[in-house]
Amino acid sequence: MKLQNLLFMLILTITGCKKDNQLAVLNQEIVFQSEYINYAWVYVHEGFVIDSSGNIRTYKLPKIWHFADTNGYISAADMLENIQQLNPPSSKVNKDTLLQNYNKLILAASGVLTEPKVEMFDAGGTVTSGFIYDSKLKKYKQILIRQTGDVYIENQSPYAKEIYDWIININK
């Protein structure tokens, strides 16, 4: 009888964890983002986001764009303003794949970032990141996956590398 109770509790725990992660994805608007900004010669600001339904939505030269603060947070209200400037979905990623990568993002959130390294000049920068919504703060926490271009920064978590490889291959 004790073994049955233990197995029952184990099953509840495992399925409960999966549900919590699924709800976390479904209860936030934006999950991943890749954006390119360049101030040299001609101003460029464009990118795409992946929302919690798996929709890929692009943007180019938004009028007002809210970035994460110095602590890596962006308010839900500011994120909503950003979302309102997105183009209609251009494509979609598989929901299960999105959930797998979101779960990797949770693990990558504790990854150590490399020291910023200047690699180019006037190339701008591409920032690939994910977001984890904190319902208590009503803010999104931006998790840097990788930054390339003028300055290179990499999240050294192996999960961050897997997410990065997935994101850069989405539009290929």
- How many domains, as an integer? 1
Number of strands: 9
Topology pattern, helix = H, strand = E: HEEEEHEHEEEEH
Unreliable runs: 1-25
What is the residue-mean pLDDT, rounded to a whole number? 87
The percent of residues in helical segments reads: 25-40%
Cα-based radius of gyration, to the nearest Å: 18 Å
What would you note in describing this structure?
With 172 residues, the protein is an alpha+beta fold. It has one domain. It contains 4 helices and 9 strands; from the N terminus they run αββββαβαββββα. The chain has helices spanning 2-26, 76-83, 95-108, 158-168, and strands at 30-38, 44-51, 55-60, 73-75, 91-92, 117-118, 125-134, 139-149, 151-154. Strands 1, 2, 3, 4, 5, 6, 7, 8 and 9 form a 9-stranded antiparallel beta sheet that branches. Strand 2 (44-51) and strand 3 form a beta hairpin. Helix 3 runs antiparallel to helix 4 (158-168). The longest helix is centred in the first third of the chain and has 25 residues, at 2-26. The model is unreliable at 1-25 (pLDDT under 50).
Question: Can you summarize this structure?
Answer:
The protein is α+β, with helices and mostly antiparallel strands. Helices cover 34% and strands 32% of the residues.
